[in-house]
Structure formats: structure tokens, C-alpha cells
Design goal:
Chain lengths: ~400, ~100
């Protein structure tokens, strides 16, 4: 493995059109999910009279703030099906979009530090295999073979008792993913409109017929929300509630280093996950800040805790320096699973609640949300993820199952 | 790091506290009569405003008591801290010293 220069990209990847007065479909939010939804609306359903409205700039939200971990080794059947569909799409998207966004299947290790972690991991490997997801249980020595810089000696504060390993997991370059989807959506006729904030909804009775924006009223046959951390704010404008809480989630990078870290390592127990980006920086994420926050920043002690854990696991990191830290706003549901489907407002659909782990799902979120908007019915993959589950009690409780779900 | 003033112990670092989510969510009185929708609203639905938010905190490494905080979720400014038996304070006037 060597560090790679990033590929050149063309000057202009999409037009920046003025909003038209009406569209068949408006998507709110040009993060990965909004862009993937627009792309699949056009590609899978032939719906091209579509606008994606973004209050800031394209992919300026969580899409370009995440730590880019892609994996599908979730415990529960509904989740495994969704994330495995995403992984299958990731495997073919670079060619389909004709854009090398550095999707690198370098594998992910989920470390076990306690007996409970070991039991959870072994159980999850079994569940994954039954669902056709590649998964292995590794002993500490095997873990060291996959990732030699990990300290697997037994006399550490968080001894590594083993790990699950998904070889097909990996990372990708998030902003390039957004640009790849944006370019192709634009080519197919989708209007990507930046600097356009949705400030209200135009309704006819219980039906949404358009949106108010800082650039005027825009009518729409159907509206899809893909606003991540701001989903509750938009739902309130539209007159319904979502069982979602917005939290800061922070990450950081080191300066550039020679390649030392060949895979992705996650530890739910000590709350850190680490990979090395193609350019060479070590990328590390933490757990969420406990409090609700829309500030795209969190508290420093969270970063301190995360780095203490990272240095314990990877002694070589002690000499690295933090170059930059940042935060995003993640929308967390009570069962740590997303909500994709209809809302109490007719013709208004929502995709939200991906919390700390929605990057990996980008193509599947787009695929299923586009299906739901185009047909008015959920795709079989997202049917279990409807808003009603909080009333029926049919939760998809990945909280207990996957702990830190990035 | 937030600086939060415990009503009993005074100003302390955020790291001394535990977060408890939205404040002023009473347990429903008529539990036997609640519909599934009403139970869902109580169990799973909480406000998530962008702006002032009344929330519970517990002083874990201090007096270990719960209390309420009025905090702006955009600026993170702590606007007020008050005891559980006190009502939510009125918001400081807009254009004031927020
Ligand atoms: C630090 C961090 C690390 C993470 N690590 C991982 C990881 O390793 N793996 C993983 O799978 N996931 C990870 N995630 C989660 C992942 O980033 C999100 O789940 C995912 O990006 C959410 O979908 P999105 O890309 O569409 O969101 P966003 O990019 O946030 O898109 C939402 C967009 O909506 C726009 N918007 C909001 N309100 C309005 C409005 N009123 N009008 C118009 N536009 C509006 C916003 O400006 C924003 O651009 C991480 C997140 C963070 C913050
Ligand atoms: Zn106290």
C-alpha cells in the first residue's frame, strides 16, 4: 500500500440552475442521501423533473464530515439486508458513475475487549453468515496479522480478546462520492440548487404541494426530506413530529503519514474508530456528544477520551498530531435505525434517523427512498423502517446489537 | 466543554454531569386509557428544537441530584439552571444579552 495522489476532477460537475417554479419531485438536502435519491429517481424510475434543494453547499453537511466507514455486518435481518444492498451498490458504483471515488475494500475489524463483546461478536458473525454477509471471528493473533500496529498484548487497559472481521468492508472518499452522484444526476436532468433553504411547506389540506424557500415558492408533486440533522426542524414546519434527537458527532484527522494502518478498526467499547485515508492522514471518530445540539461542534473532552483510547490501542499514534477536528449533526432515533417512508402529510416522504452511520448506506438509502417516492409504496428493503414502528412497537433495535453504529 | 451551574454546587465542568434529555415530560396519568399513539408519544417522541431547550442534567460527580437547564441548542449557551420544583424560567428577552 502506498499513499496515492487524488484523482483530478473536472472544473464543472453540474450546472447551477435557477430554480424553476415547479417540479415533479423536490428533494430537500443535497447530502449523499438526497443526491443518491435524485440519481435513482432518474435512473431507476425515469423521473427527471427533479430538484434537490440545499440550504448551504452541496455535501457541506454530514456527507463530507463523516469518517467514511462502509460495512454491512449488522446483527438484525432488516439492517443486514439494507446495508448489504448498499455494499453491493458500492461495489459497482465507481464503474456505473464513471468516477473513481477511491472505494477501498480493506476490511473492518470490530474489536472485542470484554467477555460480553466476545459473545456479541461471535453471535453477530453467525447472524451475518446466515444473511450472506462476509464475516469472520478472529483471535488476537489473527487480529495482529490483519493489523500489525494494534496492541494485542494482554496487559493493556483494554485487552483485545478477538474481533469480527468483514473483508469486503472499507472506506471511500466521501466528497468524491457526492460529486460523482451529483454529476450523473445533473446529466440526467436533475436541478441541483445550492443556497436554497426550505423555510416552509405549501399545503392543500393534508397534502403537500410545494415548499417555501429563501428563493421563493417552488411547487412540487411530491417532496422528500433528506435533511439528516435538521429533519426534526423540517418536520415541525410541515406539521408532524419525528422520534429523532439531533446530537453533535465529532471526528479528527492527523497530519499525513506513511501508510501504517492497512484496514479499518472500530471499538465500540472504548468508543473510537480509525482508518488511514488514501492521502495518509489518520481519520478517527468518537461517540456522540450526549446533549442535543445543532452547532456542528461538540465538547473537547469527547475528543480527549477518544484519543486516549486510540493511543492505548495503537501505541505508534502517540507521536502523531491532531491536524483538525470538526463536528456534524446526527439525527438519532430511539432504536438507532433509520426512518424511510411516508409521513402523516400526504405526498411528503422522509428519510432520516441514520444517526452516526448513514454514509455506508448512501446508495441503498437513495435506492429505497427513490422507490418510495416514485411508487408511493416502500421498497421491500425499507418497509420495516417505517415511522409507524414506533407506534406498533416493531422496533429494529440495533442499539443493543451494534453499539457504536458508524 | 459546557460550564453548567448546578443549583446546589455552583458552576462545574460539563464532564461532571450526565445528560437526561428533554425536561418537563410528565408520566401520563391515565395509563390504562392511553392509545398506542399516545404511548408512542410518551415513550419515543421528544422535542428536538433548534434554539432554547429545557433539558435535564444530573450532577454525577457532585451532589448527584437532577435539575433542569435551559440551553440554546445552536449556540450551546446555558440560559438558566433551575431546580426540579421550580417552573421553567421565561426566556431572556430577544435582543437582550443572549
Ligand atoms: C463525524 C461523523 C462521522 C461519521 N462517520 C460515519 C462513518 O464512518 N460511516 C457511516 O456510515 N456514517 C458516518 N457518519 C454518518 C453519516 O455522515 C450520515 O448518516 C449521513 O451523511 C447522512 O446523510 P446525508 O449525507 O444525506 O446528510 P447531510 O450531508 O448532512 O445532508 C443533509 C443536507 O440537508 C441540508 N438541509 C438541512 N436543512 C435544510 C433546509 N431547510 N433546506 C435545504 N437544505 C437543508 C443540509 O445543509 C445538508 O447538506 C458520520 C457522521 C459524522 C458527523
Ligand atoms: Zn451539584
Amino acid at each position: 500500500m502506498t499513499t496515492q495522489p487524488l484523482p483530478e476532477h473536472p472544473d464543472f460537475l453540474w450546472r447551477n440552475p435557477e430554480p424553476r417554479s415547479s417540479y415533479d419531485v423536490i428533494i430537500v438536502g443535497a447530502g449523499g442521501h438526497g443526491l443518491a435519491t435524485a440519481y435513482y429517481l432518474a435512473k431507476n424510475h425515469g423521473i427527471t423533473n427533479v430538484a434537490v434543494l440545499e440550504k448551504g453547499w452541496l455535501a457541506g453537511g454530514n456527507m463530507a464530515r463523516n469518517t467514511t466507514i462502509i460495512r454491512s455486518n449488522y446483527l438484525l435481518d432488516e439492517s443486514a439486508a439494507m446495508y448489504e444492498h448498499a455494499l453491493g451498490l458500492w461495489e459497482r458504483l465507481p464503474e456505473e458513475l464513471e468516477y473513481d471515488f477511491l472505494f477501498s475494500q480493506r476490511g473492518v475489524l470490530n474489536l472485542a475487549h470484554t467477555l460480553q463483546d466476545v459473545r456479541e461478536g461471535v453471535r453477530r458473525v453467525g447472524a451475518n453468515r446466515l444473511n450472506g454477509v462476509d464475516a469472520q471471528w478472529l483471535t488476537p493473533d489473527e487480529v495482529a496479522e490483519v493489523c500489525p500496529i494494534l496492541n494485542v498484548s494482554p496487559d493493556t487497559r483494554y485487552p483485545v480478546l478477538g474481533a469480527t472481521f468483514q473483508p469486503r468492508a472499507g472506506i471511500a472518499k466521501h466528497d468524491h462520492v457526492a460529486w460523482a452522484l451529483a454529476r450523473r444526476a445533473d446529466e440526467l436532468g436533475v436541478d441541483l440548487i445550492q443556497g436554497c433553504e426550505v423555510t416552509g411547506f405549501v399545503k392543500d389540506g393534508d397534502r403537500v404541494v410545494g415548499v417555501e424557500t429563501n428563493r421563493g415558492r417552488i411547487l412540487a408533486g411530491r417532496v422528500g426530506l433528506a435533511a439528516a440533522g435538521h429533519s426534526s426542524v423540517l418536520a415541525e414546519m410541515a406539521g408532524f413530529r419525528l422520534p429523532v434527537q439531533s446530537h453533535p458527532l465529532q471526528a479528527l484527522v492527523s497530519e499525513l503519514h506513511e501508510p501504517v494502518h492497512p484496514t479499518v478498526v472500530m471499538s465500540n467499547h472504548v468508543h473510537v474508530y480509525v482508518s488511514q485515508a488514501h492521502k495518509g492522514e489518520l481519520v478517527m471518530g468518537a461517540g456522540v456528544d450526549a446533549y442535543n445540539g445543532y452547532g456542528q461542534r461538540g465538547s473537547f473532552h469527547v475528543i480527549e477520551h477518544q484519543m486516549a483510547a486510540a493511543v492505548e490501542l495503537f501505541p505508534v499514534f502517540a507521536r502523531a498530531h491532531v491536524l483538525r477536528t470538526w463536528g456534524g449533526i446526527v439525527d438519532v432515533t430511539p432504536d438507532a435505525s433509520p426512518i424511510i417512508g411516508a409521513t402523516p402529510v400526504e405526498n411528503l416522504y422522509v428519510n432520516c434517523g441514520w444517526g452516526t452511520g448513514g454514509f455506508k448506506a448512501t446508495p441503498a438509502a437513495g435506492w429505497t427512498f427513490a422507490h418510495t417516492i416514485a411508487t408511493g409504496e416502500p421498497h421491500p428493503l425499507n418497509a420495516p423502517f417505517a415511522l409507524e414502528r414506533f407506534t406498533t412497537g416493531a422496533l429494529i433495535d440495533e442499539h443493543g446489537a451494534a453499539a457504536v453504529a458508524h | 466543554m459546557l460550564l453548567i451551574t448546578c443549583p446546589w454546587c455552583g458552576p462545574r465542568d460539563e464532564a461532571e454531569y450526565h445528560y437526561g434529555g428533554q425536561a418537563h415530560v410528565p408520566y401520563p396519568g391515565n395509563t390504562a386509557d392511553l392509545t398506542d399513539e399516545e404511548w408512542a408519544a410518551y415513550v419515543f417522541y421528544r422535542d428536538n428544537p433548534k434554539g432554547p431547550f429545557a433539558e435535564r442534567w444530573m450532577h454525577g460527580t457532585g451532589c448527584r441530584r437532577w435539575f433542569n437547564v435551559l440551553r440554546d441548542t445552536t449556540t450551546y449557551e446555558v440560559l438558566a439552571a433551575y431546580r426540579l420544583d421550580e417552573p421553567r424560567p421565561a426566556l431572556p428577552q430577544a435582543g437582550g444579552n443572549r
